[in-house]
């Protein structure tokens, strides 16, 4: 995923922005034209996308941490290789997304610094701990599953660089979801202890996964403008419902129980009605008080500091190449 409806209300551009350009922009969006980096766009559109894409990038990068902790402890070489590939994919997603955000004029340094300073958000889900190997299965199945629900519509987002990045990201997320589900299936068909471990992971991850779609529509302030700009194609509640409807039968196939006594199937629509989500827990995690917020940020900060020499070396190498190219041209 991991875009989450975290933002406050966003209006169009500042007063005085050219009304004719704004009208032409909206016409293009309405006609499902793609907006590209050099095209005119309202300042609010640029701001909203910069924030959304960079939050998404931060989520991919911080999202490597909960599962990365299990690479050395994967139960078999096959599981280790798959998990390693998955975590590398998430890093790649972060890189595409930072690059997409840069096309809007933000620098990667300022975006990363905002995250490290705790000013920019990333998805709430990565502030929960991975206590057992089954959590790796539950994350792939549920977190990547929720990501797919959220990201498939982003492949048709009005902003071209974001939409195109999402196509490859979604293909990889689908691999992640399958590797997670396969872990869950193996555990659910294993010993009683293994099945209990899978059930415990489902119990702990289910509700935070429902929160990944963001606040309920009634409380979400910015959706209308994002919808008009075709950044967002479905509301938070619509996406959450799709996720529940897709996931409940998968849990039944695993022989695991959903940790929601109020969950019922509506026979007319085929949809599942779910119980009340603890939005206070969501607010607390967003406010920095989740189980792992401090740990995640501290880990990222250390990694950033320890990686300074790599960035310096890359910059020195690029400068040397540029100087050589100029010398050659001059010769
Ligand atoms: Fe990802
Ligand atoms: Fe993923």
Structure description:
By secondary structure, the chain is an all-alpha fold. Helices cover 64% and strands 1% of the residues. It has 13 helices and 2 strands, in the order ααααααααααββααα. It has helices at residues 19-30, 43-62, 64-68, 77-102, 108-116, 133-151, 160-188, 192-211, 223-228, 236-254, 279-289, 293-306, 308-330, and strands at residues 264-265, 272-273. A two-stranded antiparallel ribbon has the order 1-2. The longest helix has 29 residues, at 160-188. The radius of gyration is 21 Å and the shape is globular. The model is unreliable at 5-13 (pLDDT under 50). It binds fe (ii) ion (2 copies). The site of one fe (ii) ion (FE2) has 5 residues, from helix 6 and helix 7. Residues 90, 144, 147, 173, 176 line the site of one fe (ii) ion (FE2).
The low-pLDDT segments are 5-13
User: How many strands?
Assistant: 2
Helical residues, percent: 55-70%
In terms of quaternary structure, the protein is: single chain
Order of helices and strands: HHHHHHHHHHEEHHH
Mean pLDDT: 93
* Strands ordered across the widest β-sheet: 1-2
From the helix content, strand content and strand pairing, which structural class follows?
mainly alpha
- Tell me the Rg in angstroms: 21 Å
Main pleated-sheet profile: 2 strands, antiparallel
The hetero molecules present are: fe (ii) ion
Ends: how far apart?
Answer: 50 Å
Strand residues, percent:
under 5%
Globally, the shape reads globular
Q: Determine the number of helices (DSSP H or I, runs of at least 4 residues).
A: 13
């Amino acid at each position: 995923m991991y875009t989450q409806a975290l933002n406050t209300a966003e209006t169009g551009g500042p007063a005085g922005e050219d009304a004719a350009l704004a009208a032409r922009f909206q016409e293009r969006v309405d006609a499902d034209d793609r907006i590209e980096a050099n095209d005119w766009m309202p300042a609010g559109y640029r701001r909203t996308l910069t924030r959304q894409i960079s939050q998404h990038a931060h989520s991919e990068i911080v999202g490597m941490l909960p599962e990365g902790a299990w690479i050395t402890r994967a139960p078999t070489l096959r599981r280790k290789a798959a998990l390693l590939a998955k975590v590398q994919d998430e890093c790649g997603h972060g890189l595409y997304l930072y690059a997409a955000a840069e096309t809007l004029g933000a620098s990667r340094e300022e975006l990363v610094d905002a995250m490290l300073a705790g000013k920019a958000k990333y998805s709430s889900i990565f502030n929960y701990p991975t206590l057992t190997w089954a959590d790796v299965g539950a994350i792939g199945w549920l977190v990547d599953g929720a990501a797919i629900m959220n990201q498939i519509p982003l492949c048709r987002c009005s902003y071209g660089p974001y939409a195109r990045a999402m196509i490859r990201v979604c293909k990889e997320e689908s691999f992640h979801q399958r590797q997670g589900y396969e872990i869950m299936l193996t555990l659910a068909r294993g010993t009683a202890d293994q099945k209990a471990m899978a059930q415990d992971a489902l119990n702990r991850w289910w509700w935070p996964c429902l929160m990944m779609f963001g606040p309920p529509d009634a409380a979400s302030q910015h959706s209308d403008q994002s919808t008009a700009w075709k950044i967002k194609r479905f509301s938070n509640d619509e996406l959450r419902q799709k996720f529940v409807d897709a996931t409940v039968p998968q849990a039944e196939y695993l022989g695991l129980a959903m940790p929601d006594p109020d969950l019922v199937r509506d026979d007319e629509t085929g949809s599942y009605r779910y119980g009340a989500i603890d939005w206070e827990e969501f607010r607390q995690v967003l406010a920095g008080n989740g189980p792992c917020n401090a740990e995640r940020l501290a880990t990222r900060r250390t990694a950033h500091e320890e990686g300074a020499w790599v960035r310096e070396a890359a910059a020195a190498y690029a400068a040397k190449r540029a100087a050589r190219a100029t010398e050659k041209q001059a010769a």
